[in-house]
Amino acid sequence: MKKGIALVLSLCMLVAVFAVAGCRKAEPVYKFGVGAVNSIASSRDASENATARAQGDTTVAAVVFDKDGKIVAVSIDTAQVQVNFDENMAVTNRDAELLTKKEKKYDYNMKRVSEIDKEWFEQIAALEEWMVGKTVDEVLNMKVKQRDENHTHVPDVPELESSVTITVEDYLAAVEKAWKNAVEFTGYDKMGLGFDISIASSRDASDTATAQAQIDTTFVGTVFNAEGKVAAVSIDTAQIRIPYDAEGKVVADRNAEVQTKKERKYDYNMKRVSEIDKEWFEQIAALEEWMIGKTVNEVTGMKVKQRDENHTHVPDVPELESSVTITVESYLAAFKQSHENAR
After folding, report:
1. Per residue in 286-322, pLDDT tens?
2. Among 242, 235, 287, 289, which Cα is nearest to 261's?
3. CB of 36 within 8 A of CB of 220?
């Protein structure tokens, strides 16, 4: 009799467990992607009236999409980085603080010429807000107009008439790339975008070489769950080189496509010198995978070692020993900023 009662109770408990499990909703599935558009079109040759100035513009969009492909969250920013040369084609601003347009806020100084009295960061915030709830196709099909020869794709949308007068083609293109790069994840709470920018590798002109600007813009988009752990992450670097001739003229095609390291894949050509026979995009994928499920402190507190004088922050982590031998300080710095910017 007692055995029969015990069996009935066990069955009842089992049914109850399955009932509770069945009532629990599965975590929603999202997609997350980061896209970038690069340009050197605004670089300036040396002339009688002005010294040379290289300019690399990297526009980045980090986007979270829901299961229907609608935008849940979006962060857009541009690193407009200049490398200034003197009359001898030596770099003059190598130690300058390099900030994105969002980071500059009012110091970007666009408000003074804005017909709607709004700074760039205010206008991009209005554009981001407009995008939320829309699909990529709806965003890309935005009606635009030409304001002048420098502003050929200004929103022609009633909701944005008083808030966005900047030209938006690069922002839309970056969002489209983010959608194409998007991967599934669960556990969305906050998303942020961070940068680390350097012109340290730019070259002065010398007796044996002409000048070359190099702009390294590392950007990291990160999704965090409610526990503050990484749910999704994307790391990439736009390594933009702008070579000059002996007269201070840009010798690169100003209108050519400039790809990020991820986009270049095997063409980045690091594998030939890799001691683990892995290309940059393969190593960064391993680093991203390692970050998933970790807190910010766990990621930024990664133990590192010096491999040589050019690689001073290589992961000293058993799980990454055979997959990551690149130096990671700029990736960790941009990752940390993505957390600080997360909303």
Report:
1. 999 999 999 999 999 999 998 887 788 999 999 999 9
2. 235
3. no
Which range marks the domain in which residue 64 is found? Answer: 32-260
Write down how long the chain is: 343
Residue 8: inside a domain, yes or no? no
Q: Which residues contact 263 (CB under 8 A, 6 or more apart)?
A: none
pTM, entire model: 0.91
Rg (CA), the chain: 24
pLDDT confidence bin for 149, thresholds 50/70/90? confident
Q: Is residue 195 part of a domain?
A: yes
Query: Is residue 27 domain-resident?
Result: no
Q: How far apart are CA 202 and CA 215, in angstroms?
A: 7
Give every CB contact of residue 181 below 8 A, 6+ residues apart in sequence.
Answer: 33, 34, 35, 234
